[in-house]
Design a protein that fits this description.
alpha/beta, Leucine-rich repeat, LRR (right-handed beta-alpha superhelix), 3 helices, about 10% helix
């Protein structure tokens, strides 16, 4: 039976939900999407589409993955997100061409170790499940580039996380982490990491070796301070530190010459270092709900600032009348004050 004939059979089974398909020049289906419905199972006929490279059954109330899926030897992308899955079949290890797998918003309580047998796997999203741990076999995922495990009650990361040497993007938001393993410092190619909404009170010294980081979110943790080593992260463009217990920032924050966005709301900041004025392309600065009474004159050097939020501070300067007007009045006030100080010195 040809793929066109098989498609007609599949359409009859899926009912009103017409799948989206793509074909190759040989008249074979290479992409099949049938998302958001109530199928409950993947039609058996899918297993005969031997040239399939992309398969998506997201949001279809699936409770299991059939073992015959292992016969889809050309499969590269598999999306089974937003279902009711709690395990994967052993035959999954036959999917040697698989590169991307999306399993977020299912019912997994254990990380499916069969994934660790797939030599080409580059992207895994298994966020919003019920994972309590990650297996040591994680070290086998040598080609992994993105790894999303957010919204799982993990509490800790295994030291094997440091074996994922090609990782560039890591999301471990809302995973109840209290500490990070020092091995995380081995992820030399990491350019994006999200550790927001955890219980971190400090970071290991090795963390500050991640010098390629462009985006770092440590929002809503329990950090008491930011070490001087923050200055090592010269590639940073976005730094999110809101919702911690910071009372001050190190002078080294001013060495982050590529920084464009700095979120510091909901801390206990009482002062800012003069060096914050050395951020030449900073365009967003959120200082809402801190304990600031005034700013260093140098903040008026931030000529690229477009968003500047000051609400919720006991400020004496700028006065409340200026703060209420928000941007651009508040930053203009500080810029003009800085310019006046320069004239007075000259």
């Amino acid at each position: 039976m040809s793929d066109r004939e098989m498609l007609q059979t599949i359409i009859q089974k899926v009912g009103q939900k017409i799948p989206t398909v793509e074909w190759n020049k040989q008249g074979e289906i290479i992409s099949f999407r049938c998302d958001y419905g109530s199928l409950g199972q993947i039609p058996r006929e899918i297993g005969y589409l031997r040239s399939l490279q992309l398969l998506s059954f997201s949001g279809q109330k699936l409770q299991e993955v059939p073992s015959w899926i292992g016969g889809l030897s050309q499969l590269q992308i598999l999306n089974l997100s937003q279902n009711e899955l709690c395990s994967l079949p052993k035959a999954f290890n036959l999917l040697e061409q698989l590169q991307d797998v999306y399993l977020q918003k299912n019912h997994f309580e254990e990380f499916p170790e069969v994934l660790c047998t797939l030599p080409r796997l580059e992207n895994i999203d298994i966020g919003n499940n019920h994972l309590r741990s990650l297996p040591p076999s994680l070290r086998l995922l040598k080609e992994l580039v993105t790894f999303y495990i957010n919204n799982n009650p993990l509490h800790r990361l295994p030291p094997e996380i440091g074996s994922l040497r090609k990782l560039t993007s890591f999301n471990s938001m809302k995973t109840s982490l209290e500490v990070l393993p020092p091995e995380i410092g081995a992820l030399a190619f990491l350019d994006e990491i999200n550790l927001a909404h955890n219980a971190l009170s400090s970071l290991p010294p090795e963390f500050w070796k991640l010098t390629r980081l462009a985006s770092l979110s440590l929002s809503f943790n329990r950090l008491l301070e930011v070490p001087a080593e923050i200055g090592n992260l010269q590639a940073l463009e976005v730094l999110s530190l809101e919702g911690n217990q910071l009372q001050s920032l190190p002078a080294e924050i001013g060495s982050l010459q590529k920084l464009e966005v700095l979120y510091l709301a909901d801390n206990k900041l009482r002062s800012l270092p003069r060096e914050i004025g050395n951020l030449p392309i900073l365009s967003e600065l959120d200082l809402e709900n801190n304990e600031l009474e005034e700013f260093p004159l140098e903040i008026g050097k931030l000529v690229e600032l477009e968003v500047f939020i000051l609400d919720g501070n006991p400020l004496k300067d700028p006065p409340p009348s200026i703060v209420r007007k928000r941007w651009p009045t508040n930053i203009r006030y500080l810029q003009e004050k800085y310019q006046r100080s320069l004239k007075e010195r000259s």
